[in-house]
Amino acid sequence: MIGRLNHVAIAVPDLAAATALYRDRLGARVSEPAPQPEHGVTTVFVELPNTKIELLEPLGADSPLARFLERNPDGGIHHLCYEVDDIAAASKQLEAAGTRILGSGQPRPGAHGKPVLFLHPKDFLGTLIELEQA
Amino acid sequence: MIGRLNHVAIAVPDLAAATALYRDRLGARVSEPAPQPEHGVTTVFVELPNTKIELLEPLGADSPLARFLERNPDGGIHHLCYEVDDIAAASKQLEAAGTRILGSGQPRPGAHGKPVLFLHPKDFLGTLIELEQA
């Protein structure tokens, strides 16, 4: 079912400082920051040869990252995103196997405009998993 | 400096259950378990088209994962491993920039037999980073 690792998302308290760290200290190629008010985050992508690191800073009062950063004030790895060929079929198959899907359970447009859904961390080794339509 | 994401490591309390979850629930290709007594872990690799997920279970009384799993009993993402072309040069450059390297500060053979070192999570957005000689 799962294909490529699309990205690893790291929540950070200060996006400019985090971007500088990856660009200057680790010598990586980084994107411009992109505010995504509908998701409550601003994103910067670190482009690696085989995948991406998504740096996420809270945006607005109701950011889904606020609680995570309260518990992890230095930042931390927030989720892994795997690509799937058919997200509707994946969702159906996972639910039938007893996996809890967060929110409505229906795929919705994610930060890249493609349909995504999130699996409950308690069902996946303490890791929040995003599935994205490839 | 950094190249490919070599792997994402996930610490798990029960390697057989974690392997079954990735193989049966997510339909991924998984390796046989490999005990690595010198590192205090048993590893299973989940092979994705562009990178690997390394599932890690504690092995022996002094496993470096014991405390992590006490704090994260369901498991959790333990570290990210980036490849570098020249680990000695990377180490020197990072130390000169004020990055703390864990342990002796010298690269030592990692789980794949190649030289590795670990960077202090406090210096990297709350994430433990392994650098591995490509």
UniProtKB/TrEMBL annotation, chains A, B:
InterPro entries: Glyas_Bleomycin-R_OHBP_Dase, MeMalonyl-CoA_epimerase, MMCE/EMCE_epimerase, VOC_core
UniProt cross-references to CDD domains, sorted A to Z: MMCE
Record has Isomerase as a keyword: yes
Keyword Isomerase: yes
EC id: 5.1.99.1
Domain VOC positions: 4-134
Alphabetical UniProt keywords: Cobalt, Isomerase, Metal-binding
Pfam families found in the cross-reference section: Glyoxalase_4
Molecular function in Gene Ontology: metal ion binding; methylmalonyl-CoA epimerase activity
GO BP terms in the entry: L-methylmalonyl-CoA metabolic process
Reaction(s) catalysed (UniProt annotation): (R)-methylmalonyl-CoA = (S)-methylmalonyl-CoA
Family membership: Belongs to the methylmalonyl-CoA epimerase family.
PANTHER family the UniProt entry points to: METHYLMALONYL-COA EPIMERASE (PTHR43048), METHYLMALONYL-COA EPIMERASE, MITOCHONDRIAL (PTHR43048:SF3)
Name assigned to this protein: methylmalonyl-CoA epimerase
Organism (species): Bauldia litoralis
